Amino acid sequence: MLDYYRDEPGTQAYPPLLRCFYPSSGNFIGFVSNLRSAQRLRWLTNAFQASSDFPLQRAALPWWVPGVALSDHSTFWREGFPAVMVTDTAYLRNPHYHTAHDVPATLDYGRMAAVTLGLAASVASLTPAGPGMR
Prior knowledge:
With about 130 residues, the chain is of the alpha+beta class.
């Protein structure tokens, strides 16, 4: 989920307690890892920020925080591999998520393109000896 953004305050929800630390507007891309993947999270967000000025928020959280393990990355965690989820926060932001109203017209293609370009540049910066591969 990389394509739903809103600038208005109150458009971003969070699991309990996290709302105290993160913005209320849903206009950023989120990078989330478990605690064991925190180093990869730092590396990836630093690489993203070096190639993009798109706003981001990051969090290394225990897997049991609601929503943290609800995507494909959690399979890697279970097998002992580091992984980071990159997300627009899905159901915590998009009121249309997985409903009949979840249609292309509700998406922000300009911001999705900006995030995609930032992620592509971040991944392209990977090298066998780089910080993301250690």
